[in-house]
Design brief:
This protein is mainly α and 91 residues long. Helix content is 41%, strand content 0%. The protein is globular, with a radius of gyration of 14 Å. This is AAA-ATPase-like domain-containing protein.
């Protein structure tokens, strides 16, 4: 029997990474967010059940100043841009 780690309804980025679940790497959104001109408000609009909460959880993990997040983002697209990570991760 083949078993896959495909969760339904989990929206916590850290839980997805630590439990080795399958998901779409959306870390390129971080790159787009920090490279665009600063705005007072950034609005994320997507249809229902399209991953908005997951993206917010990913952003919170990336920018969280209370802990080191490097291990959570290791192997993901954003980790390839070391300079960006040094400037923005946990800031």
């Amino acid at each position: 029997m083949i078993r896959y780690n495909i969760p339904i309804g989990i929206s916590k980025f850290e839980k997805m990474r630590k439990n080795d679940y399958y998901y779409v790497d959306k870390t390129e959104l971080i790159h787009a967010l920090v490279k665009t001109e600063p705005a007072e408000i950034t609005l994320f609009t997507r249809p229902h059940r399209f991953g908005k909460t997951f993206v917010m959880s990913m952003l919170a993990s990336f920018f969280d100043i209370r802990r080191d997040s490097k291990d959570l983002f290791e192997g993901l697209k954003i980790a390839e841009d070391q300079k960006l990570c040094e400037l923005w991760m946990n800031q």
